[in-house]
Amino acid sequence: MSFSELGLSSHLLRALAERDYAEPTEVQTAVIPSAIGGRDIWAQAQTGSGKTAAFVLPLLQRLQNSAGGTALILVPTRELAAQIAESVRNYGRYLPNHAKIVTAVGGVSINPQMMALRGGADIVIATPGRLLDLVDHNALKLSAISTLVLDEADRLLDLGFSDELGRIVALLPDDRQSMLFSATFPPDVSALAGKLLRAPVRVEVTPARKTAPNILERAIEVDAPQRTQLLRHLIQTDAWSRVLVFVATKYATEHVAEKLRRAGILAGALHGELSQGARSQVLADFKASKLQVLVATDLAARGLDIVQLPFVVNYDLPRAATEYTHRIGRTGRAGETGVAVSFISASTHAHFRLIEKRHSREIPREQIPGFEPIETTVPDSPATGGIKGKRKSKKDKLRDAAAGRVNEEIKPLGSPKSSYRWHRI
Ligand code: AMP
User: Fold this and answer.
1) Which end of the chain is more exposed for a tag (fewer CB within 10 A), N or C?
2) Residues 239 and 186 in one domain
3) Both 24 and 103 in a single domain?
4) Atom of ligand 1 at shortest distance to CA of 3?
5) Which of 13, 19, 206, 302 to mutate to test the pocket of ligand 1 (most atoms within 8 A of CB)?
6) The pTM is what?
């Protein structure tokens, strides 16, 4: 299958030819023709699958066919919004009528966005909170939206945007096209899809809870206080080129980055409390290889699309199993190979087991000479370390009880009820 068979105009094909994509990805082949035809889309696709082009190309094509109205792309984070905007510009660069794109995200002044929306827009890429602010300021009428795209819908709900989404959807016209993309389909995302989509074309690119096969997952046992040293060792000894390191807190991003810098490694910190300018700068530096290591929190790193990011490190493990998928999906994008390393210490051992269980896999444990852990776990200690799973709603719990399902909810990390024990040998 080639791009030219998908119903795209010569202008779009020209822009694609410049990208040197050999052929459309699976999600693109499945979504593009139906979306151009105006169908609703229900797509289970992870980052790295080429899902952005799968919805951007039909939007641009329909724009040319003068389908009219404004397309609204809702995303969980500003970084993802910026990346999608860049894709729209890239793919749309040869269109005779340039698409007017407005990015409407929080964390920056609303006024330029209000100005930009004057006279309407072809494509609005927004985070839900800021979009509603703009609606409240009468800068945008949601009744003029002809196409809705929810990108990374699972993450939108994880970040607590459910109420905002409800408000937004209530203001949209009924006769719209809707597309929903999500890496995972837990019950809340499925419910949202059920509410939003009409007779959708279902596309499933990766089986639920499986990660792309071109990512090598490694689990290295190390004592927590040794993690920075080990990280430094791996980066230097194994000559890791470009590394994204996930940590749990804003403080840790700064702290770990600083320690690496002191060891002569070009490292930067990225977290949600940096100003938008600082976030963009550090990302640009990382993309331009001025930084070798980026130490980030989940929020800041969400949706990052960095071509050739061979290494991802879980310095701190993610709280939720779904987050693990998102994190390691930063590497191994679009056919490249990647390595995702998780540091496992005595206190996170059980937690990692739960993540593995959720993803139905077992990753062999490794130890690196010179960094063998001295803190070990009691082998059969109960797995109560816990991860923040999807909390079930009361309704779900009742439904489960009615169906006789066991409540598999996992307790929060570091729960005081945890009976986890560890000792020194
Ligand atoms: P996405 O899943 O949309 O985040 O895209 C992941 C990466 O794949 C991006 O860097 C895209 O530029 C790239 N990509 C998109 N479509 C293709 C394709 N057909 N062939 C190769 N790479 C692609």
Assistant:
1) C
2) no
3) yes
4) 19
5) 19
6) 0.59
